[in-house]
Specification:
- It is a single chain.
- This protein is α+β, with helices and mostly antiparallel strands and about 170 residues long.
- A hairpin with a 2-residue loop joins β2 and β3.
- A four-stranded antiparallel β-sheet has the order 2-3-1-4.
- α2 packs across α3.
């Protein structure tokens, strides 16, 4: 059950929640990255943006897998880490106060949890899961806007897909 239920979350009525997954949509993620960027700036903490894509192989439809991916991500993440569906099968996680080593472990743990959830549905060969992250160690000292971090993470994921021939 997504922790951002449309029935109890006022952001659903503001168009911030994805109808398919119950997670934040692109608009909701943009709002949350600005809010978390402000928090990280004030507290001199890191801000990490993890991107994950669950790409269908051989043009298999992915719509039925999206709720599975969303549930696996929410089970794996800290309750304080917002997660959303950016577009298609692209997901984003935001985390404040996570170091580079922690971000790498979190990214790996997330990718493995999603792969396991898909495998439990017998769809292992039909999807390829790619994940990556971008991090700013101390947002107060870095000349990076939070929205730029989100864009960098998304571009890094595109580059990873291109490198792997996806």
């Amino acid at each position: 059950m997504p922790r951002r239920s449309k029935d109890t979350d006022p952001s659903a009525s503001q168009g911030l929640i994805d109808d398919v997954t119950g997670l934040y949509n692109a608009r909701g993620l943009a709002r949350r990255v600005r809010e978390m960027g402000s928090q990280a700036f004030r507290s001199h903490q890191s801000l990490v943006c993890i991107t994950l894509a669950c790409d269908p192989v051989a043009k298999e439809p992915a719509d039925d897998v999206l709720p599975i991916v969303a549930a696996a991500m929410e089970k794996t993440l800290r309750p304080s880490d917002p997660v959303g569906r950016l577009s298609g099968s692209n997901f984003v996680v935001l985390a404040v106060g996570t170091g580079e080593g922690d971000a790498q472990r979190m990214t790996t743990r997330l990718r493995l949890a999603v792969e396991k959830a898909i495998e439990s549905r017998g769809r292992t060969q039909a999807f390829k899961v790619n994940a990556g992250f971008e991090e700013v160690a101390n947002l107060a000292y870095a000349p990076v806007e939070p929205m730029d971090l989100l864009a960098r993470a998304t571009n890094a994921l595109r580059g990873l897909r291109a490198d792997r021939g996806d």
